[in-house]
Structures
1.
Amino acid sequence: MELACNGTAKKVAVVEKQEPVLIRPAEKTFDGIYHLSNLDQTYPFFVEIVFAYRKGMGNAAEMIKESLAKILVEFYPFAGCLTVTWDGKMVVRCTGEGVPFVEAVSNSTIEELGDITRVDPVKLRKLVYHLDEVNSILDVPPLTVQITSFRCGGIVLGIAVNHVVVDAKGLADFLNSWAEITRGLPLSVDPYLDRSRLSPRQPLLIDIPHPALVRKQSSVKSLSLQLQEPIVYQSFCFEPKKLFQLKEMAKEDEFAAPPTSFEVISALVWITRTKAYKIEPHKTTKLLTAVDGRSKFKPALPECFFGNGIVMSCAQCTAGDLVQKPFSFAVKIVHESIKEVTEDFIKSAIDYYELTRGQYEMENTCWISKWSRLPFYDVDFGWGKPQQVAPASMVDNLDLTLSKEKDSKNIILYLGLPESVMKVFQELMQSELKRK
């Protein structure tokens, strides 16, 4: 295992950052309220991601500005703003006001920027346009874009997206469509913006338990917020040999299908976080895993469905069982919880939100999401595919996995924890992974 710590990479100096301009759709688009699904309501946070290209083009900013205006005709909700309706649900007011776009210049080189998989929000957030102070998720634009040119000719594209509007799969689809337009190609897949298939049923039918969701009026807070400590960010690199060892460790239990790399990483993170937080043995601990529900429907949601198609599975047990029983115990719980996500499960979760306005659990809970199979490394605007892709910041309580580089079999785990908890987590993770 390779450990990458925050603060170890070289700092990048952005020497010039222009004021944001609004890029409006190139043609008139829908003007009105764009309704969001109940799944969308459960992800009130934003995602920031950076794409590092070794070589760009001199007119790159103008190219992507022009093509952004064109692609917003198809993905017009990005050019609007969030608001709330009479029933407390968030919607997009499609005004066509545009996407904030920033051009910046760095006096560094891409090489000096270093390995961006070494998670460092202080450094990487300079490469993303974001609002420093927001009172509500409603104040976060659906999408912002920043392009930073480096002294060597390299480029970093920084994207911030409001997760209420779209998930990572939908973002990847948008970025690849935008790249196709930039290269002068027709769209390979038309976006599907209709979210009506994710509407609640009438009458509501909640026939499956949803332990991942808690009623909105709950005052539950995440442990990291309760501790009032600085958050420390780390990234861990899992090589194929280590993943094979973890899968071998999981073989003590029988599985209908072999556990995946993501499942064994998820189980290890869940165990290690539980130990690091010193959760009492009798208390329930949960692992919420983002599962793409697009293929679970019959027929499946369209390939380029635009929105949140994910739902959280929930693995749970007492902290005592999790840390004392064999590793295979945790892997099996994770594996089975993911299998439970079916069309009926998703529809029941949608109905549950309609009744309770439930939000995902935070207390004694770890969230994890897999980006390693999303086509972020295919985003080619005409100057080649990105050398590296990485989150610029981390959502509280959420861990991510992403490939280290294009075609790399190494998987990076990103997470942030309170300083004292991270110290223990790091020691335990190294100890667990060194065991033969």
Note: The mean pLDDT is 91.
2.
Amino acid sequence: MTLGLSSSMTTIVSILTCLLHTGNNRLSRFPQVSQARSSITGPRSSRFPSAAHGSLVRGANEGNHDTAAPKRLITDDQLKDYVRDGYIVLSGLLEADEMNALIDAGTNIVSAHIEKLGGKELPKGNFQVHEYGLVLDDKEASGEGSKNVFRRVALHSKLPQIAAELMQLDKSTENLRLLRDVFLAKGPGSTSSCGWHVDDQMFWPASYQLPNHSTVDQSGINAWIALDDMPLENGGSLAVAPASHGDSVSWRNDAYAALGFDDSFGDGISKDELFKVIKSGKVDTCGLERMAPEIHQQIEKTKTEFNFKRGDIIFMNRWLFHRSTDVTEKGKAAVKAIEEIALLKRYSLRYVTGSSSLPSGFMTELSILGTSGANSGKEFNEVDGEWYPQCWPEVDDDVEEKIEHVVKNFIPVAQEQLAVIMTEVMALFRSR
């Protein structure tokens, strides 16, 4: 297993907890790296769920087939829904060939892992795949020399523009960068899930201050793409707590505290402080139900779940509480009847402003390890190397060459450093 994760206080603890609790049936792998480019034209349809029932309503952008890029892709009503609820679900944003390419690439990733383990029955059982950094490298998904479909969708599709519109960015003064991407899949027997949480610095390796909504929220967007149909009654997808990114929910600050989120930690902590936390066993990003069951029950009463169709994309505020949903018995039966090797697939993209910054504390982020710490604490616009490519208002013409330079010259160094750190952390974790 190779690891290419950013990890700060909650990050290392949570990932090691998952690894130790799911045993050998967990398929885990982190960064790699490759090439590609394209664009997507005109939105065909859109949906957005009602907060009360999670239903999907069609219609806002239907009929717009202009070949030129539209000035705006979301409606005023959709923006209001997002600002109020912290999320919006849209469909028809990706062309059929792009969706098919994402699905094929995901299937290849799972197939490669299963082949390595020699587990022919795993696709129908307990397995889970987390594949990070595919915009950098997707050779295992697409093959050497093939175009990188993850890069195409993350940088050249309509997704960055929609994220920028939801964040209400001004293209004359602001820009958007890709912070993190991850492909996930799991079998119907998977027992791995993550409870109510907001992303820690593994999934969101940026400095933070807890949200203050006196101004427009530009903390970031998570675009979560369903690569399979995921009916509500089958489970195995995602639930959200509407409006939990704002201050209208009574339990929000208590949930932050239980999960270890505090402004004093927003810029990271030292290695010694992190190791003390690991030894204490008190931090678990996915463990809110265990650590604060009363808060978990409060959130459960407000949750919205979805009837996701293949190609639906939910755009979520960086601070929206969400959780994975368990596969139901009906879902297990339905998934087992499908003759596919990779099931319950999804691809997730995190977008942030270029003026956001990396934490300056101890991290296992490759962009920091690969530059001997030179990128620690830097704004993403100032980071050395194309680790976080700009995707709005435009993509650099030479982005492919810049990414490949990082892949060839810095990622090998970072992975060596990471292996040393994770050996030390694993030994500490097991000795608790």
Note: The chain is about 30% helix and 15% strand.
3.
Amino acid sequence: MEKSIKRINTIGNHIVGSLSSTTNSMTYSKAQQDKSKDSFKPTNTDLKKLFEYQAQQEELNKKEPFHLTSIENETITLTLNRPKSLNVLNTNLFVNLNKVFQSYRNNPKLSLMIIKGNGRAYCAGGDIKELSQQTRAIGLLFPRYFFSKEYNLDYTAATVNKPRIAIWDGISMGGGLGISIHSPFRIVTEKTTWAMPEVSIGLFPDVGASYFLSRLQKDAIANYIAITGKSLTGADCIEFGIATHYVHSSKLNELESKLKSLVHQQDVNLIESIINEYASVPPPPAPLLKDWDLIAKCFSNRYNSIDEIMNELSRTNTQWSNDIISLIRKKSPTSVKIAFRQIKDGALKSLEECFFMEFRLAIRSLSNNEFIEGVRSVIIDKDQNPKWDPQTLEDVSDEYIDHYFSNLPSDQEFPIGNDQIYMPPQ
């Protein structure tokens, strides 16, 4: 089979600057948002609970490490090591992986980082069970701790100006993409299942997705991924410029060994030539191409609202479009509207600005019951019957969504680059 020599567009070429109850059907207005939760000052009791939880997690990490690192010649390999949980990223990992990326960035003796997962998943995303349970146990301090640590990790990973290879073998979703999507080399396999499914649980595609999804080259693909939450195959990821190389999973160990033995001095041309020895064209066609004409028609960036997309889907009136309408109607209406707008806004923002925007969205999303209800329905009770509030897209006004995107008080904004915030005194 012909080798895949052509380099797919990279997402990460950016310049780094300085540092549950239901209601009657109704249209929600900004006045009904609980703005008091925008300003939050943790009590000593809140901090004590958080520090105790951090200590408990670190003890678990010592017994069975959440991640593994190994160095061979000039290559560091970072392996996510929670296979029973599909390698989801918890807050302990956010803190410690940030240190790993910073160490790699600052160590002149290291020339390559390989990022991968242990088991059948690369990473199934952030640990939403932890986020839900500890928000209940600790209170509103926990989401601030969770997202400040996660997004600072993502920002560090995105701005490391050294070669990285992400191996998306198996389930590759959400938070795991945040630490790897900006890698110059992004490998998929025949086992890859790639998705940003957050709208199903009352969240939105975060970890910098406002930035990286909005910069995919083909019109409509970002809206489709963000709004539907549907998964892509490895072949889809190659077709739409999300991944750079397709390598059969049976060849990964040999590829890693050769990279570790030969790579020196951050030689990206050598890295690429080695990957190309093992890369191939994925078996055609990419599954998403079967519906691409309809996706391009119904999810185009020319639409100015989710209502316009839903109207186009209705006018199309095919089995595919009707199924998509039904799928979107099952998602959190608030999350769907946020997802649409964040892609629009993210296309015009820097990476840093996207993280500030997403932090505001995350804090507001955890200040109501939407996420807690989504996790209950999908992860805990698994009844797949969330009671969203507001209930429908028509109930969610633009004014209601505007509040999610508005600035937080200046002392509550994303603490970019602050590794010490919400950590116990040294």
Note: The first strand starts at residue 67 and ends at 72.
4.
Amino acid sequence: MKGLSGPKLLVVHPSSNKPSGGAGSPAAFLGPRRRLCAAVFLACFACVSLATTLLSAPRDPGHAGAAGRASAAFQVPAGGVGGGGGGGAAAGAGLPGYVFDALVQYAAAGGNSTPSMPGADVRAIAAVLKRRAPCNLLVFGLGGETPLWRALNHGGRTVFLDENQYYVSHLEGRHPGLEAYDVAYTTTVREFPDLLDAARAARAAECRPVQNLLFSDCRLAINDLPNQLYDVSWDVILVDGPRGYTASSPGRMSAIFTAGVLARTRAEEGAATDVLVHDYEREVERACSREFLCEENRVAETSTRSLAHFVVRGGSGVRRDAFCAGGGAAATAH
């Protein structure tokens, strides 16, 4: 045939299975490099994952359960019995719950080096603060727990009152920002029976439950504090001072009376003040609490043998001629 008699052209196509570049081309170099980088990345990821797993696993199989039980033993309940008030610690401005519980666990376990109140009392007070904080907290008495109360009320206002002006200055130097004032008490424990009788006789007059303490003539009224403290709506009042263990000590008659008046004089309708009295097993603390804070206001669920918890309400509906529904007659029963 005519078409086969001329010159022939042979066309060779490169195989599609071979790389398009030569041995020295960029494609031949980048392929193995990408595979090497991927292998290194996967190896590093596996090592990090393995290390994280090993570090997070408990060394002792029983450790996790024991730690959980120990944490639960010192867990402070978020709720509580009594009137509402300041937002709870978990509500925003207060301490995170785990920080709050850690501080309470340390204090209740006797972690500080100073003589402290029993762990049950610390937890009872902390339960009230956890429900009310951040709040306005007034504390009668300085001591080993002072930094704890201040820390648990993070975001609120905490004021301390103490009989010893030198101790006030000492702690103010050790704890910058601490708000503390010294109080000149004019009473002694040996005067307790006469003071209580006089207050009962004048409970509709100068020792009435609702009054301006700045101008009070009642011997049990504390009226030499900075004026602005009398205008504060106190959410929690802790009475852990002054001294009351000897006949010549000032005793806590004035502190308990003043706490009762401050709580009842609050102007907000339905306002409730949690009042906690430490060393409640002693005669003075028990009798004055029953007289001025009243048994009908005591919260048994958050009280202990040595700590009494009262919820005292203010507002326009408060009686102005007597502290208690029964006139305080129960105070004589020990």
Note: DSSP finds nine helices and six strands in the chain.
